[in-house]
Amino acid sequence: MMMEKKEKKEITFTEGSVFQALIRFAVPVLGALILQAAYGAVDLLVVGQFGDASSISAVGTGSAFMNMVTFVITSLAMGSTVIIGQHIGEKKPKEAGNAVGTTIVLFLLIGVILTVLLEIFAGDIVSILQVPEESTEKAILYIRICSGGVLVIIAYNVISGVLRGVGNANLPFLFVGIACAFNILGDLLFTGLLHMDVVGVALATVLAQLISVIISAAVLKRQNMPISFSKKQCCIHARELKLILTVGVPIALQEAMVQISFLVINSIINQMGLLPSAGYGIAQKVVSFILLVPSSIMQSVSAFVAQNIGAGKKERAKKGFFTAIIVGCSIGILIFCAGFFGGEQLSMPFTNDPKVIAQSADYLEGFSADCILTCILFSSIGYFNGSGNSIPVMLQGITSAFCIRIPVSIFIAGLPNTSLVYMGMATPITTVYGIFFFAICFAVLKRKNQKKMSL
Predict the structure, then answer these.
(1) Other beta carbons less than 10 A from residue 56's beta carbon
(2) 72 phi and psi angles, rounded to 5 deg
(3) What is the C-alpha separation between 303 and 10, in angstroms, rounded?
(4) CA neighbours within 13 Å on the CB side: how many for 273?
(5) Kindly report the CA angle at 283 between 65 and 333, in degrees rounded to 5?
(6) How far, in Å, CA of 387 to CA of 165, rounded?
(7) What is the DSSP string of 207-271?
(8) Which of 117, 108, 102, 110 shows the shortest CA–CA distance to 147?
(9) Any idea what DSSP says for residue 11?
(10) What are 186-195's contacts with CB under 8 Å, separation 24+?
């Protein structure tokens, strides 16, 4: 049933202060992302305390791959978030309900297919990633166990995508908080007390997500949302499927290419030896936290722009975009300082090995400029995603991954006396390209709008 009045938890982006609306939405999104990133971080932290460098390398590489899977799923679910948000802005609750029903069936099918493929090809994946020999079997086990929970990962992201589409970022924050708490308990039990090493952290991750999804499903039954939805709508609605895929597929392809490029870099660094591999694995966990601010801004801009485009308020949508850039870059400067000057301190919680810590700090030093640059890039991605024009996002992701990030990384790896400091610089170099790419896209879009107005 459609409710008469929106609950306070659901933010209306089309009215009131732009800054306040973005912040009110971004803060719980950021909180949820922090807790979600804590999954892999806690896994690596615990295995770093109770395991050795081979376990750190296995979890670092295995979780990097599973993060790719999760990011692609999240990106595809962004199609649902945008379409639901646009229907809310258009005041079409039935169409929003049809989008929800289509999303449920679509992602159920994707989950089953992914689970089968990942279980079968886990060994081949580890081989392609060129995991050090000492870590190979552990990495295969980690991926296979986590792959068994793909349906659970999908369920969480679908629920979160639907809720963010209607402007509710608080419940996803609650659900991931529950999962994180159980994950910490599971890691300490399985790996700390039972000494199950990599198997323990993988089991803890899957079980924690399952508990979170069960609780979230129970809570959702009691929620009223500004959509008209019933079980009968749980089927594929051709129009909504087309809209969701039109937005979601380019976003997912973009994210897949970006994540694949990072896996290629992981593979290149794995060839540099066990210590660089372990150091990079830890650095990536730190980076996953560093990038949470721009990621939360991107999701907020996407939801903000979607509702305002649906309501016909294009100028307000642009204002939200520029506000997000200012806020993000202001915070990004502080994060840059932490990464550039405090890499060792940020890496210490994950391991006691000073050599691994030093390798991680080197990578963070080279990477840290991206803390500021990514806020501009991700805000641009959020604007185009929210407007339903995700083709530029896809093109930027593909070209940046295969024309900039991978070639630059290969070139740097081949330099004499190279180090993780230089390898870390490949990411900010790629982000600069992405910013220029979207600057051109905005210029082209502006010209098209001017031509339409002159006709």
Answers:
(1) 27
(2) -65, -45
(3) 12
(4) 8
(5) 115
(6) 13
(7) HHHHHHHHHHHHHHTT---SS---GGG-S--HHHHHHHHHHHHHHHHHHHHHHHHHHHHHHHHHT
(8) 117
(9) -
(10) 187/42, 187/43, 187/46, 188/46, 191/46, 191/47, 191/50, 191/51, 192/46, 192/49, 192/50, 195/50
Q: Pull the structure tokens for residue 148.
A: 């068994």
In the chain, the amino acid numbered 439 is A
| CA–CA separation, 166 and 160 (whole Å) | 10
Contact 129, 267 (CB under 8 A): yes
303 burial class (0-12, 13-18, 19+ CB within 10 angstroms)?
A: buried
Q: How distant, in Å, are the alpha carbons of 104, 248, 251, 325, 449 from that of 234? A: 7, 19, 24, 38, 38
Q: b/e map of 71-95 (b: 16 or more CB within 10 Å)?
A: bbbbbbbbbbbbbbbbbbbeebbeb
* Amino acid letter, 24: R
Report yes or no: 389 and 254 within 8 Å, Cβ to Cβ. no
Q: What is the C-alpha separation between 44 and 48, in angstroms, rounded? A: 6
Structural domain spans, the chain = 18-448
User: Is the pLDDT reported for residue 212 higher than 50?
Assistant: yes
CA–CA gap between residue 378 and residue 318 (Å, rounded): 14
Tell me the C-alpha distance between 104 and 149, whole Å: 17
Alpha-carbon span 157 to 299, nearest angstrom:
13
**Do the Cβ atoms of 300 and 29 come closer than 8 Å?**
yes
Does the pTM surpass 0.90? The reply is: no
Q: Which ranges of 51-149 does DSSP label H, i.e. alpha helix?
A: 53-89, 93-128, 136-147
Confidence of residue 425 (pLDDT cuts 50, 70, 90): very high
The per-residue pLDDT for 6 is 41
The chain-wide mean pLDDT, for the chain, equals 82
Query: How far from the centroid of its chain's Cα atoms is residue 236's Cα?
Result: 26
